[in-house]
């Protein structure tokens, strides 16, 4: 067996065993959500799935995920028949816990395979394409190893899947597979995997524009460059477009077909626009800053007597409820506004991809940017969604130093912003230690990716993290110290219970916006150059 | 991990990473239930430790070991030496600051809450970090100084993650890491040539837990042998003796000036009126008992004498050999031999006492990775009935597989494993998994309700005996000092 396969198996086994150690850890309500979906899909006819509302945790994922739960529930019924009974109350027997936890660990194998598949292709590709001797054989192996560790042990995925409870590992596996297919220029398969993914979790629709544009541009047009519009029009390959549409429509009809009679109900479940701009805990995006500015201005005007107290009372956003709320001073935000802003922020990158579709790296960048921009401007974004950016970003991070630096920053910031997800003191050591281990590994591992051979390993240059960025990262430490210790020392628990969360999300949103802007500028600048990666 | 660790950014980095991984796994295990959780009236070791905190913080020192209205000795009375009591006093003081209800006299019996559990788990992890994890890393860095960093890292992880200790200390709940860590510190001091400090540290270990007596003979013999071979034997022996006496004197200070106190303490520490063994222990007596009902044939006095005789016979060869040929390598082997001899043959053995053999056995990993690795697995296996009782089956399975896999990776990369060892591993894994599978599926026959437990202890006992003989053989045949010499291994990554 070659090195990459061996490493993948080793990392995979160790990761899976480690994940199985997390079985008794804290479970969020998502555990009960998924338990309830098992019950719904097992005990009701298909027509009832999206109507059932005995429990408040109704089914709000696309049909393929429902089918996935259905197949799981077949095994679940054998393990514990009580598990698949619909009930209003929570149910978490010992067997249920083990079954559900292990199902996540086992479905994660798809992620491990997907990373392996990518690494295998990537290292072969690099071996073939590196005419210069700048990248040695060893170096490719090291980079592949680092990538596998960074993805399989991704802090966010472990925390969200194996403590908080979700099935993201499997979904990111499909996601990575589709990226690999794009890189291999197997566009039909890529489209197939991506449309499957969308039918598992519609949240990935955020990156769909990049897929759409790239597939259209690369697959439906033959050449990379055209001198004129007419030439381009003449070269359009209708059969390819038909093939793609057929794949997409086939998957959608299989997935949504059985639910065609209740399509409105399904849609209303999938897109609950009645929720607020932000979650109770603000995801570290643009709106967190917007809210804070609004609050600050309101507070100042309250002091100055420009604002009456009751308006202040009526618009408290930190109440912890997931509802629409109005801003006090700044204009209130409607879903359409966020939609428009997201579109505007995505547009330049999309246009850019259309104009310069030279390589899958350009696609990867723009796809990450799509996810990133919609995270920053989207409606009702959850902090968990940032892993949709971080995981594909890892693929870029091992390629060159600048992206490695941005990845390191983003993983530090983005993963830190996940901390409030595990608020229980019991899991606190786990999240801290895992976070530190992951950050250390990211920092040193990524340095290894760019050294040319094992011999030069003793002359590693550290990632070029600037002074400002270093200070910012160290600042995270102080935010955490404040959250854990100082807040209760200052006795602010009763007066301002949400202050630590607010500080965390605002501090992180500054960093996230910084990385986003940097990455945006860099991507636009880089991919317009046909001979990319002559850099550093 | 290999490439990552060959990077030159400070070799401190590996130690930090190893420490963090060790802490992470420990904490994962401590998420599980502890012994006696929610099982009145006696609860388990967790309650014992909590109760000791309660006693030591609320009662004057003079009453700690005596029966009184506030100290019912039959309800988890303190039966460990004074250092444990002091340690519990410190923990109790901290607990008092956080939440006095946890250790309120008499009313707090059986107190359980998630916050309290968190506090208790933290106390173990802290002690483990300071007294066990750091010394293990120091040991690794010392004996493997000339080896590659990757090998050192792998071995330190294997030493730090030995499943038996993790499951008992962080799952079942005990402070074994404290006494074992002190003994390890003593070994470190002695290896570095600071025999006086070593003697002092080992005396502290003895004063933390009397079970450390299992290790005392090799310590005594090694230091004696070393002194005899030095230029000023008499002076050295006197110094060491005085050190031990002073350390003991300091630890026992509050109990020294009253004969009543001292004798009561001794009575509490060595309760000879208990049985030959408790529950199902993987030692010789328990195994022989399956075939021959010892307790019906012999009186208790005879049994005590018999076990004493057997223990002495088992422990003497390696001890005498150590006096004559003291070397650091043989010292570790003798520690395994002595603790195993006591475990296998002595009177009133507890299944957890195998931990005393695990510590020195894990130190042997750099030289005999296959053998000691298998021993560590068997040691955990032998405690399965206890672990099942505590609800620790789940972490047991995960950590055993994880450990086995780490061993496998280490062998594949750095060691040439012999055919016999390979077969041993194959057979052992098969036997263990078959037995676990059988226990999971089948209902035990009515005549032998404890069939699986007995089988587990008998199989483990056979292996322990084998390992005991093997280590004795090694001690007698080993070259002078393997620790100085280089290790037989294929170096792949250097």
Automatic annotation (TrEMBL), chain A:
Top-level lineage group: Eukaryota
Keyword Iron-sulfur in record: no
One Pfam family in the UniProt entry: Alg6_Alg8
UniProt keyword list: Endoplasmic reticulum, Glycosyltransferase, Membrane, Transferase, Transmembrane, Transmembrane helix
Principal location listed in the UniProt entry: endoplasmic reticulum
Transferase is among the record's keywords: yes
Bilayer topology annotation: Multi-pass membrane protein
Gene Ontology cellular component list: endoplasmic reticulum membrane
Known EC number: 2.4.1.-
EC class name: transferase
GO MF annotation list: dolichyl pyrophosphate Glc1Man9GlcNAc2 alpha-1,3-glucosyltransferase activity
Gene Ontology biological process: dolichol-linked oligosaccharide biosynthetic process
UniProt pathway: Protein modification; protein glycosylation
Membrane-spanning ranges: 98-119, 140-159, 165-183, 190-214, 244-267, 336-356, 362-382, 429-450, 471-490, 496-517
InterPro entries assigned to the protein according to its UniProt record, in alphabetical order: Glyco_trans_ALG6/ALG8 (IPR004856)
Subcellular location: Endoplasmic reticulum membrane
Protein family per UniProt: Belongs to the ALG6/ALG8 glucosyltransferase family.
Protein name: Alpha-1,3-glucosyltransferase
UniProtKB/TrEMBL annotation, chain B:
Enzyme class (EC, first level): transferase
Glycosyltransferase recorded as keyword: yes
EC number from the UniProt entry: 2.4.1.-
UniProt cross-references to InterPro entries, sorted A to Z: Glyco_trans_ALG6/ALG8 (IPR004856)
GO-annotated biological processes: dolichol-linked oligosaccharide biosynthetic process
Membrane spanning residue stretches: 12-29, 122-144, 150-168, 180-206, 234-257, 303-325, 331-347, 354-381, 393-411, 423-445, 451-474
Keywords for the protein's UniProt record, in alphabetical order: Endoplasmic reticulum, Glycosyltransferase, Membrane, Transferase, Transmembrane, Transmembrane helix
Superkingdom to which the source organism belongs: Eukaryota
The keyword NADP belongs to this UniProt entry's keyword annotation: no
Pathway per the UniProt entry: Protein modification; protein glycosylation
GO molecular function: dolichyl pyrophosphate Man9GlcNAc2 alpha-1,3-glucosyltransferase activity
Membrane topology: Multi-pass membrane protein
Location of this chain's protein in the cell: Endoplasmic reticulum membrane
One Pfam family of this chain: Alg6_Alg8
Gene Ontology cellular-component terms listed: endoplasmic reticulum membrane
Family statement: Belongs to the ALG6/ALG8 glucosyltransferase family.
Descriptive protein name: Alpha-1,3-glucosyltransferase
Organism listed in the record: Trichoplax adhaerens
């Amino acid at each position: 067996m070659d090195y990459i396969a061996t490493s993948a198996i080793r990392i995979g086994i160790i990761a899976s065993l480690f994940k199985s150690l997390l079985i008794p850890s804290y479970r969020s309500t998502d555990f009960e959500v998924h338990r309830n979906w098992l019950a719904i899909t097992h005990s009701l006819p298909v027509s009832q799935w999206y109507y059932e509302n005995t429990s408040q945790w109704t089914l709000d994922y696309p049909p393929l995920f429902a089918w996935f739960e259905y197949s799981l529930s077949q095994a679940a019924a054998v393990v514990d028949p009580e598990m698949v009974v619909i009930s209003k109350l929570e149910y978490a027997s010992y067997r249920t816990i083990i079954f559900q936890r292990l199902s996540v660990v086992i479905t994660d194998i798809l992620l491990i395979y997907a990373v392996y598949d990518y690494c295998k292709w990537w290292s072969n590709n690099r071996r073939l394409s590196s005419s210069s001797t700048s990248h040695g054989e060893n170096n490719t192996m090291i980079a592949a190893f680092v990538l596998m560790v960074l993805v399989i042990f991704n802090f966010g995925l472990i925390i969200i899947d194996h403590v908080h409870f979700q099935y993201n590992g499997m979904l990111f596996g499909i996601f990575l597979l589709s990226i690999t297919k794009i890189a291999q220029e197997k566009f039909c398969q890529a489209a197939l995997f991506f449309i499957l993914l969308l039918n598992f979790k519609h949240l990935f629709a955020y990156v769909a524009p990049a897929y759409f544009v790239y597939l259209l541009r690369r697959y439906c047009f033959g050449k990379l460059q055209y001198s004129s519009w007419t030439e381009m029009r003449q070269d359009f390959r209708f059969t390819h477009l038909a093939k793609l549409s057929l794949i997409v429509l086939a998957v959608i009809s299989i997935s949504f077909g059985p639910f065609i009679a209740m399509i409105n109900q399904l849609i209303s479940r999938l897109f609950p626009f009645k929720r607020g701009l932000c979650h109770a805990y603000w995801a570290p995006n643009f709106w967190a800053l917007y809210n804070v500015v609004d609050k600050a201005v309101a507070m100042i005007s309250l002091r100055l007597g420009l604002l009456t107290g009751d308006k202040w009372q009526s618009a408290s956003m930190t109440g912890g409820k997931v509802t629409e709320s109005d801003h006090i001073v700044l204009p209130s935000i409607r879903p359409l506004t966020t939609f428009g802003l997201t579109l505007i922020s995505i547009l330049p990158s999309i246009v850019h991809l259309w104009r310069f579709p030279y390589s899958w790296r350009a696609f990867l960048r723009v796809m990450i940017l799509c996810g990133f921009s919609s995270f920053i401007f989207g409606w009702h974004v959850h902090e968990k969604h940032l892993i949709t950016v971080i995981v594909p970003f890892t693929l870029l991070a091992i390629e060159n130093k600048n992206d490695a630096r941005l990845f390191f920053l983003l993983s530090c910031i983005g993963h830190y912003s996940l901390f409030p997800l595990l608020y229980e003191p019991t899991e606190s050591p786990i999240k801290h230690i895992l976070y530190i281990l992951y950050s250390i590994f990211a920092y040193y591992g990524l340095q290894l990716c760019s050294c040319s051979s094992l011999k030069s390993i003793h002359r590693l240059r550290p990632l070029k993290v600037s002074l400002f960025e270093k200070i910012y990262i160290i600042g995270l430490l102080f935010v955490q110290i404040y959250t854990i210790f100082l807040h209760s020392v200052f006795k602010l628990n009763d007066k301002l219970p949400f202050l630590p969360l607010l500080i965390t999300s605002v501090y992180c949103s500054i960093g996230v916006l910084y990385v986003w802007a940097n990455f945006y500028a860099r991507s636009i600048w880089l991919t317009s150059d046909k001979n990319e990666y002559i850099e550093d | 991990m290999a490439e990552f660790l060959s990077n030159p950014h400070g070799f401190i980095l590996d130690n930090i990473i190893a420490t963090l991984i060790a802490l992470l796994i420990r904490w994962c295990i401590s998420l599980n239930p502890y012994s006696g959780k929610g099982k009145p009236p006696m609860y388990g070791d967790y309650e014992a430790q909590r109760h000791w905190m309660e006693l030591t913080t609320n009662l004057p020192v003079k009453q700690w070991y005596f029966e009184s209205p506030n100290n019912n000795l039959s309800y988890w009375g303190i039966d460990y030496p004074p250092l444990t009591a002091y340690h519990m006093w410190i923990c109790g003081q901290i607990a008092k600051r956080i939440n006095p209800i946890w250790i309120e006299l008499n009313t707090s019996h059986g107190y359980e809450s998630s916050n309290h559990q968190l506090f208790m788990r933290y106390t173990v992890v802290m002690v483990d970090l300071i007294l066990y994890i750091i010394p293990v890393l120091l040991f690794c860095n010392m004996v493997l100084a000339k080896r590659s960093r990757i090998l050192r890292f792998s071995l330190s992880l294997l030493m730090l993650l030995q499943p038996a200790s993790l499951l008992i200390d962080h799952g079942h709940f005990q402070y074994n890491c404290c006494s074992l860590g002190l003994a390890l510190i003593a070994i470190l001091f002695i290896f570095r040539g600071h025999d006086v400090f070593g003697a002092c540290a080992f005396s502290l270990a003895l004063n933390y837990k009397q079970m450390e007596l299992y290790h005392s003979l090799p310590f005594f013999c090694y230091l004696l042998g070393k002194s005899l071979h030095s230029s000023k034997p008499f002076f050295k022996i006197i110094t060491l003796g005085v050190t031990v006496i002073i350390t003991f004197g300091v630890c026992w200070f509050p109990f020294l000036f009253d004969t009543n106190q001292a004798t009561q303490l001794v009575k509490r520490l060595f309760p000879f009126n208990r049985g030959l063994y408790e529950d199902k222990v993987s030692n010789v007596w328990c195994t022989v008992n399956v075939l021959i009902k010892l307790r019906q044939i012999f009186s208790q006095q005879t049994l005590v004498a018999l076990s004493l005789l057997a223990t002495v016979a088992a422990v003497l060869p390696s001890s005498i050999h150590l006096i004559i040929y003291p070397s650091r390598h043989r010292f570790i082997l003798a520690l395994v031999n002595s603790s195993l001899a006591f475990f296998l043959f002595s009177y009133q053995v507890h299944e957890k006492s195998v931990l005393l053999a695990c510590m020195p056995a894990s130190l042997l990993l750099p030289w005999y990775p296959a053998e000691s690795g298998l021993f560590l697995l068997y040691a955990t296996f032998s405690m399965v009935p206890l672990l099942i009782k505590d609800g620790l089956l789940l972490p047991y399975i995960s950590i055993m597989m994880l450990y086995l896999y780490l061993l496998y990776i280490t062998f594949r990369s750095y060691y040439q494993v012999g055919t016999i060892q390979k077969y041993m591993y194959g057979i052992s894994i098969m036997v263990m998994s078959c037995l676990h599978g059988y226990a999971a599926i089948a209902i035990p026959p009515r005549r032998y309700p404890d069939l699986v437990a007995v089988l587990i202890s008998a199989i483990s006992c056979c292996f322990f005996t084998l390992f005991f003989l093997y280590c004795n053989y090694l001690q007698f045949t080993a070259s002078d000092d393997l620790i100085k010499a280089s290790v037989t291994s294929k170096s792949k990554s250097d």
